[in-house]
């Protein structure tokens, strides 16, 4: 098999791994080094040059392109839509919220069923909580000192 084809297949394989397995942009970034290596292999460069081009392309895409792509994939608060706009919003507890039930009124919004994000934690009527996630039709809430692990964009 020709060397350029091997580099090309490595690049395509890494893109497939990125798309199917992770979407962390690591394999995809490394794959961007394989395509220039395929070009220099087709031009007749030695294996050492091919590996150097692959390493330089992979390093460049990991250091420069991956951070840019990651920033583009993150949704800014100002352009969130749907239930994503509720993440981080403050809410007033209307009925006691525990890990099984509850009711909150989100500031400037609607009344939502709610559950405590933290097992065993409950919030009294009238207290203020923060929406950390949306799961189904319930807002998962915690107080301002609650776990930041729940702070993420998206609903389950």
Description:
With 156 residues, the chain is of the alpha+beta class. The chain has 2 domains: 3-73, no CATH class; 80-144, Beta Barrel (OB fold (Dihydrolipoamide Acetyltransferase, E2P)), CATH 2.40.50. The chain contains 3 helices and 5 strands; from the N terminus they run H-H-H-E-E-E-E-E. The protein has a 5-stranded mixed beta barrel. Strand 1 and strand 2 (103-106) form a beta hairpin. Helix 1 runs antiparallel to helix 2 (26-42) and helix 2 runs antiparallel to helix 3. The chain is rod-shaped and about 75 Å long. Residues 149-156 have low confidence and may be disordered.
| SSE series | HHHEEEEE
Structural class: alpha+beta
Largest sheet at a glance?
A: 5 strands, mixed, barrel
Q: In which range does the helix fraction lie?
A: 40-55%
Number of domains: 2
Task: Specify the overall morphology.
Answer: rod-shaped
Q: What descriptors fit this protein?
A:
alpha+beta, rod-shaped, 5 strands, 156 residues, single chain
Summarize the structure.
By secondary structure, the protein is of the alpha+beta class. The chain has helices at 3-22, 26-42, 47-73; strands at residues 90-95, 103-106, 111-116, 128-135, 138-142.
Topology:
Elements: H1 3-22, H2 26-42, H3 47-73, E1 90-95, E2 103-106, E3 111-116, E4 128-135, E5 138-142
Parallel strand pairs: 3-5
Antiparallel strand pairs: 1-2, 1-4, 2-3, 4-5
